[in-house]
Request: fold
Amino acid sequence: MDSSFGYVSDKNTSSVTFDPLSSLSVDRVKATSRLNSISNPSGIPILDPKTLNAENAKVTCASIVPSAKTQEDLQTVVTWTIRGVDDDLVKSGKAQFWDTKTNVAVDTVTGTLGDTANNGNGIFVFGNQEGRVVVEVHLGKDKDGEIIASYEAIVVSIKKVPFRVQLLYNGTDGAKTRTLEDAKAHIAVANIYLRQIGIELVPDSDADYQPKDNRTAPLPGKDNVGYFFNKDADAQILQKANFDKVVAATKYGHHPGVVQIVYIQSISDENTYGATTNHPDNMYSKTGVKDKFVRFEGQDPEELTMNVAEGKIDKDNPELWGFAIANLSGDPKEDVGTYGHTIAHELLHVLGLEHRSADADEDRMPVPDANKLRAQYRKNLIYKVGLYADIDAWQLIAARGSDLFKK
Ligand SMILES: [Zn+2]
Reply:
């Protein structure tokens, strides 16, 4: 059979469903959560297979619906396989499983449905070669059994995005609500969200670079490279910053080509958690990736319209990329999940992605129905409203087409 979102077999067999949505809600994501906390990512990273299971991508069955033969079905033996898929946009990739029972890299694993620990409900995957792959679940103890479910993903190498965090405040107004430790936790959470598409925020290694104006001081300590502060920021930049003031904020301590993550108090639109100002061009901004890739059979491309923005470039600062984060994400310690989500969301804007919407001009929230694909659409990380986790395969391709990665 062809790959599908979820396959319901005859009623003598349990049905198995992969959930393309993460069930991970923002209030459950912590800085100390595993990097692979989001299951069923659209991207499977190329890793040293010996990397801890905490880093390998995790593909899990979201639900196993027992048939009439409940007990028997929950003990059904299944065999997982993975193979490359050719595509006109993405070439065939290679990936393997990490067998948690034997701690070796394998091409197939056999387990028992219902046995969450041992290759039953879920398996760990790592990539060997970039490209499109499909994970398939076969009934029985070998790969010749009937395929009861499959899951598509793209094997990717990890792309590192250098950043500088700028903590802006004013020494007299008590505005310094976020600390170095807060910002580090927020970045750690953002990297959990971004892991789905093989993108990782890394501190700018050149800690000594300073612009001529609007300098910021590096926070001392070798573990704090990439984090800066300025306690004399202008009130109009810190509070209710309009677009121009957000742009001004992103110039503090700016290092060309390095993404600026600037903490201020609030943005003029009081419902705004974060605002991206400048970003490079994206190879897909003119051609788009619409209609080129369908993650699941039956997915209607019209429902998944995605727009990729052309670069927004300041001619005086052609490599100024960045965004501001406002206090609206909540308590800097309690709400690390929300802050991390906001940073991941804004970074996708920096990479050229616009909000996921059925109609780019109209941020309407589609109503989920029996077709789960709509639910996936609704739960996207870059939806304008709502704190959802999923970044889908189209977005993976588009985000990684950013000129930020050209150097
Ligand atoms: Zn947005």
Notes: Residues 345, 349, 355, 384 surround zinc ion (CB under 6 Å).
